[in-house]
Fold these 2 entries.
Entry 1:
Amino acid sequence: MNDGHCGLPTAELVPVAEELLEVASDLVLTALSLELADGTVIADRVEETDCIFLAGLHRAERAVAERLRMLSLGPLPWPPIDAEKAMPWIEQRTGLTLAESQRAALELALRSKLLVITGGPGVGKTTIVNSVLRVLAAKDVKMLLCAPTGRAARRMSEATGMEARTIHRLLEVDPKHGGFKRTDENPLDCDLLVVDEASMVDIMLMQSLLKALPDRAALLIVGDVDQLPSVGPGQVLADMIGSDALPVVRLTEVFRQAAQSRIIVNAHRINQGIVPDLGRPEEASDFYFVPADDPEAAVARVVELVKTRIPARFGFDPVRDIQVLCPMNRGGVGARSLNIELQKALNPASERRVERFGWTFAPGDKVMQIENDYDEEVYNGDIGYIDDVDPEVGELSATFEGRGVTYGFGELDTPVPAYAATIHKSQGSEYPAVVIPGMMQHYTMLQRNLIYTGVTRGKRLVVLVGQK
């Protein structure tokens, strides 16, 4: 599960268990047969391969597939809409001229009970979602919007002008008893559910969401399938698209305005396996490459870029606007050691500071919450800023998106300094400027979808630092 898997091929599982448990394979096989008989794990074939699944995850995969099929076959919750009339109405309302691919997607969305829309940055996913929402709002269709993280939900609200919630909040987390209050027995009240940033949704969360969706409702799933898959087990969006059982719109055309951005052009090149343009741009640009041959040089470059060069040239605030995103946590150019260096450079600790769990916290520090806290309503990946550290009371106060949160000194294992973060943690977020170190020492992590996800987090500036 930690590696995102729901099951493993039996031929891989047995040697891994032997090594991990330091026991002989016949003992592993005996234990496995007992667990199979108990139903803790389930044997199944995936194509030609015998696999063992954890029972809960196997049930979730089955339940999601079954529910999606059932939903897709039901009748539409709104009367038929004449797309020919809807298009000019939308173009007039938004002042945008829809491209052929967008018109086709909009038409399909208006007549589909279930639709998946995928594509990279600058291909107009938001335009289509907004168009669908406007047409259906005019028909009094009841709509709910959600995304996996607080930051993705806020971005969705800003883009659509409608309230979007996190999936957890939509399903009404029950902190006392665990699980959600919204289920098949107490379903959501909507005719259409829109899920954004769906690449981040793992199999268990998707199962809970589909369970709470009433049979009558339509479902619109939006996400970029080429980004990193969810941190939790499963790759729901990729599997939905790969199943060929559901209607999918794959947008590939980068629109003119977006094509002027080197971030977007290079992101699409990275995704296609073409080396991005790392040359020095002739004029001002939003994408740069800064060479650094070894880890020491890379760390120095990153600190210099964040502290002085980017703020001087582009006017970005080094703490609030610039985010360093690393392929991994460990190593000299990993998020941990870069956090220490950046903290020293940007916020040398004052008298009022506290050291806990291997980190120093002081007023002015940028921190990231790394666990969901449903009582305080701060979630994994949320970024905040420390207002004060009070050693007498033993409390630290911080602000997350305008909301105050107080931590006792004993609870300081849930926020971590966030001058640098891993690319995995940045999923679903956008930052005005990102700096991404990439060194050969990270090679175990340097997959195409990791670099692509990192680059697409930058809104106005992306700087890659490292070895070509």
Entry 2:
Amino acid sequence: MKLFLHYVFDRWMQTHYPGVPFERYADDGICHCKTLAQAQQLRAALEARFAECHLELHPQKTRVVYCKDDDRRGTYPEHSFDFLGYTFRPRRSMNRSGKLFVSFAPAVSDKAAKAMRQRMRRWKLHLRNDLGLQEVAQWTRPVLLGWVRYYGRFFPSALHRALRTLNRFLVRWARRKYQRLRGHEMRAWDWLNELRAREPSLFAHWRLAATVGR
């Protein structure tokens, strides 16, 4: 399919729409049009091109999206899209001088965040009292590092919200592991925040925020 789309889409775009930049990964792609008219015309042309090759565009995924920000202040029903685990949409940002502005930027998507939380729940970390703290950290580190390195590049605060699930499981683990914390949820959260302050690199996602929260 990848090689087929190289000829069906990539080469065709380069020949017929050389002024429209695009990205494609597997069967997902983005085309950057300058006007609504250009986007609508390109969509119609792509539908015809895919039909010629006995394919069709995905009816739900194929959309015209307006990349609204401080420089593009128009209105359009669609102003966000998902691509490669990120959601691109208007977001409040801060420039180097500390001034707030609206940018059209990516952050981890809700779908990707949900998948992360489901995977962390499947670990059943709070039941692994057979493991010590360092063993828990080593066990989770490869997956956490992968998430942080991929999704933490843009708007890491969004990723931090998704990974707070692990902090809650660490608190539950500690309350079962250490007798002094049993029956004391607030004390367990204090323990986790103190641990994070002493060893901020113990869990990869801790670098995303100043505290582990509650």
